[in-house]
Specification:
By secondary structure, this protein is mainly β. The chain has a domain at 533-690. The protein is built from two helices and 57 strands. It has a 38-stranded mixed sheet that branches. Strands 46, 47, 49, 52, 53, 54 and 56 form a seven-stranded antiparallel sheet that branches. It has a four-stranded antiparallel sheet with strand order 48-55-50-51, with no helix packed on it. The longest helix is centred in the N-terminal third of the chain and has 15 residues, at 54-68.
């Protein structure tokens, strides 16, 4: 392989002459020659000249391509001024040697087609080592329509105008534009400081800025890309767009770095197509400035990585780190319903403040909105986030579409809500499972009365989610929670039409794991602090005369909120063999539901069984039905029952508070009646939650 220096080229030509080949190298004082073959590798030298005008070098570049007939053109080191280049139907293979820089001719300083620099139409293009400094003269650098494009080790800076205002003929500022290209490969790209001509209007071309814009191509591979700086109204570092009825554009992005500032609307924007994103890193650049001290968000920043538009396709983001502190949203699917976004094994970091600023789009009214780590709009379908870490944000995860999954994530210290699911529109299926929420900052998760909320879903699967209070060691070497003021509800179900189940969700003592409201969601195996049955084995007896509590079980709030939910409580005990009168009473909440006199003069054993079934949630009355059965025998258990009884009825205990089930005894001497064992369990065969 040749070393491409001027000395090497001359040496190669001399060697060719020695072998009987006539070299075309002229004397040093002569004008630059035409293409000279380097026969060892089949390459030719460009006829462009650092001393030539932009128009001359543009003509030379086009002539080189035509005469090379597919061979690689080598551009030696130097700074070349180049005018507008347009090539059709050729094979373009150019290697720019290290030290080569292209700058635009002044004639490219124009709005519209006159501001385009390089245009390849139906060409098979390979560019190696292209380095350009746009000097804020042209609107765009390289465009390929049709054919194929492969670019390696490319650097672009300072494209777009600083002095011309945007208008209807503006094309936008683009580093690399590809349209209807079969194969796109960009490997090794560094771009910075592109400028869009702001005209106060969004979604038009004047303020559009893209380092890479790909429109309705087919196979796309992007590796080792770094972008930074710049400004504009639609300043998206990368924009993939496929508006066909069935988008077929697809590809991958790998090892990409985006350093955004307060003018970067998005780092990556996808509209249609199927995309795999791996090892994507987004950070605030050194030139990032938040709008004010009241917010972490930049002036123009919207969604860091975004699937936008109602177009088909999938974006899958994995193994990445997204510092979206300067954005309203970290990763989003903002429209739907044909596309979906899947995020896995990725860290998404956001600020703790609201997005407080003037809306960058007309009518530019003041706004104060919550930031979000992952957002899926109500119209989308089947987006999911799994095995990720979401740090900060006002609302960590918001999914409002259908068939969403939020699985196995770690949510670090969100401010207002760790999760929001659903909207005012009825939606079907949500899996919320295996997520761990760490609350740390005092007063976090306390503003809205709940830590998470779910609206208007059928077919909910909510299980194995855990709220953890981060602990610290105080000066006395004691572990204490850093945040004790979060809301008293971990997951709040707010719409009566919700159906599904909630199982094994955990929260600290004093926090309701799942509150179902008036929904049809089945609750079981959720816990306040420790998952266990309510079990009492300590002997508790009466004390002399008067009515005394024996065993007392408190069914936690909302465990009997759903119609059909049920609990069975069993109490057992003994009586002393004396002639004293003994009365046993069974209570459900504030109501005595059975009173029985026990048998004097025997060593008795008694058992009470209470079955309590929810038939309607509060405030509907009645709320529960009960059946109480009592039996007493002598302790040998060989004789017939001495006392037996059954009671049935309804009660209206508030289901949003504890429901007390207990036994009391009225006797004469202490320990005439003793309670020995108490067990409360659900009729589904699963343990209830007790703190």
């Amino acid at each position: 392989m040749s070393t491409f220096t001027r000395r090497a080229l001359v040496t190669a030509a001399t060697a060719g002459a020695a072998a009987g080949v006539v070299a075309s190298a002229p004397p040093a004082a002569a004008a630059r020659p035409g293409p000279r073959s380097v026969f060892a590798v089949g390459e030719v030298e460009t006829t462009m000249d650092p001393a030539a005008t932009g128009a001359a070098n543009a003509a030379a570049f086009m002539a080189d391509v035509a005469s090379a007939e597919g061979r690689q053109i080598v551009v030696p080191p130097g700074t070349y001024t180049v005018g507008q280049v347009a090539i059709t139907g050729e094979t373009i293979d150019v290697r720019f040697m290290p030290g080569t820089l292209l700058v635009p001719a002044a004639s490219l300083h124009a709005v519209g087609p006159a501001g385009k620099w390089f245009q390849a139409t139906n060409c098979d293009t390979r560019l190696h080592g292209l380095v350009v400094d746009g000097q804020n003269i042209p609107e765009g650098c390289w465009r390929s329509d049709g054919g194929e494009l492969r670019m390696y080790d490319t650097r672009m800076t300072n494209l777009g105008f600083l002095d011309l205002t945007g208008n209807s003929t503006s094309l936008g500022t683009f580093g690399i534009t590809v349209k209807n290209v079969q194969e796109v490969v960009v490997d090794g790209y560094v771009g910075r400081d592109f400028v869009g001509r702001k005209d106060g209007v969004y979604a038009n071309q004047a303020g559009k800025v893209n380092h890479l814009f790909v429109y309705e191509c087919e196979r796309v591979t992007v590796r080792n890309l770094t972008t930074s700086g710049g400004e504009g109204e639609d300043n998206d570092f990368v924009h993939m767009l496929d508006q066909r009825a069935t988008p077929t554009m697809h590809g991958s992005f790998e090892n990409c770095r985006f350093l955004y500032n307060g003018q970067t609307r998005r780092c990556m924007k996808f509209q249609g197509g199927n995309w795999s994103l791996r090892d994507i890193h987004c950070y605030r650049g050194p030139d990032f400035v938040a709008v004010s001290a009241n917010t972490d968000v930049g002036e123009q920043n919207l969604n860091c990585i975004d699937f936008a538009g109602s177009l088909g396709g999938t974006v899958r983001l994995s193994g990445s780190f997204i510092d979206a502190t300067g954005y309203v949203v970290g990763v989003s699917h903002t429209i739907g319903p044909l596309g979906k976004v899947i995020v896995d094994n990725t860290t998404i970091v956001g600020g703790r403040k609201h997005a407080i600023r003037n809306n960058p789009e007309a009518p530019t009214v003041p706004q104060d909105i919550q930031t979000m780590g992952f957002f899926a709009a109500p119209t989308e379908n089947e987006s999911e986030i799994r095995d990720c870490v979401v740090k900060g944000f006002s609302r960590a995860i918001v999914v409002q579409g259908q068939r969403n999954r939020v699985v196995g994530n770690t949510i670090e210290d969100p401010v207002e809500l760790w999760f929001q699911g659903g909207s005012s529109q009825a939606r079907d299926f949500l899996e919320l499972s295996g997520n761990k929420v760490h609350t740390r900052t005092p007063d976090a998760l306390s503003v809205l009365g709940r830590c998470g909320r779910i609206d208007n879903f059928s077919n909910l699967e909510i299980y194995d989610n855990t709220l953890l209070r981060v602990m610290r060691i105080d000066p006395g070497n004691v572990l204490v929670p850093e945040n004790t003021t979060h809301s008293t509800v971990f997951i709040d179900l707010l719409n009566a039409s919700a159906t599904g189940f909630a199982r094994n969700n955990r929260a600290p003592a004093g926090t309701i794991p799942v509150r179902t409201g008036a929904t049809g969601v089945a609750l079981y195996q959720n816990q306040g602090h420790h998952l266990r049955p309510l079990l009492t084995t300590t002997d508790v007896g009466n004390v002399t005369g008067g009515e005394d509590n024996l065993h007392t079980h408190a069914i936690p709030p909302f465990n009997l909120n759903t119609p059909g939910a049920a609990v069975r409580t069993t109490f057992t005990g003994t009586t002393k063999s004396n002639a004293n009168a003994k009365t046993l009473k069974v209570w459900i909440g504030s109501e005595p539901v059975m009173t029985k006199s026990l048998t004097p003069g025997i060593d008795g054993a008694w058992q009470v069984e209470v079955v309590l079934i929810a038939i309607a949630p509060t405030p509907t009355v009645p709320s529960q039905r009960y059946t109480v059965r009592l039996i007493e025998c002598d302790t040998a258990g060989s004789g017939a029952p001495t006392v037996a009884g059954i009671a049935a009825g309804t009660t209206a205990q508030p289901s949003n508070a504890q429901i007390i089930v207990k036994t009391t005894a009225t006797a004469v001497a202490t320990n005439d009646v003793i309670a020995q064992v108490g067990v409360s369990e659900s009729l589904e065969g699963r343990h209830f939650v007790f703190t």
